[in-house]
């Protein structure tokens, strides 16, 4: 078992508390994304797990073996933890195979061990799709190929845990999308317990089994991608993890009366009294045109399409409500209205009600 358990961990940089009482339990073979904006403490947490920073409070354990606590830190090279950095950081004077082999155990000690080492290098190179490039120099590789070498090197010693520090951030969009999907599939096939640090919401939601959202050094929410996106634990998480439409309304027995009509809603983090003013948050794709409601004055709201931002597979539509502000709608590109079209809008799933600021 190579599960990771982080219990009530706090880490400081000088006098700054960078990670504040964070607890995570990551199952063996699971890929977890630590998501958050710059300065939220996500990389500091990764460094503490790697043993590169001490913890002031709490404990870190992998596979039941305690690696960190206040006043005690197992050295990074003795943790059984692999690291894939943002930049590949390959040795320029070594070939692809030699870069991978640098981290393969048993580099010395007889022909038999040398043959096993060569076989392991070949296995890893094949695993990351570079089986024909082991003799190539790093300066002959593309950015994606270099990151594949870094991944193979990190996997070489068969780590109990693999840490990935924004490894796709420096790549162009098309390459990043393809490579990160391949890497996630590879790690799952290998059964490697992995922690991916990222500030990219799409990356976290599409790759991870679970997402840990960090804010100001604290864990704001930990759940599946669906839970974090559909059921955010706070208004901050809702706004950070995806696009939101925010409207002011009045709470009435599980519904919010607002510019979009009477919208079913779930109160998050508080229990509003009837008549209380609340903030209703919706995802743009929850707002849909409903021609069947045109004759029902009490249902939905009238709007006119003001702008369309086309993205190929879908589009973001700005619609001006007749009796309210503008709202965003996300629709599949095959069924788009035109600018100037009149629509009757409705909300197709319960919204999220937060306390008024």
Automatic annotation (TrEMBL):
GO MF annotation terms: ABC-type quaternary ammonium compound transporting activity; ATP binding; ATP hydrolysis activity
Keyword annotations of the record: ATP-binding, Nucleotide-binding, Transport
Domain named ABC transporter: residues: 4-241
Class of enzymatic activity (EC top level): translocase
PROSITE patterns named in the record: ABC_TRANSPORTER_1, ABC_TRANSPORTER_2
E.C. designation(s): 7.6.2.9
Entry GO terms, CC: ATP-binding cassette (ABC) transporter complex
Gene3D superfamilies: P-loop containing nucleotide triphosphate hydrolases
Protein name: ABC-type quaternary amine transporter
Organism: Microcella frigidaquae
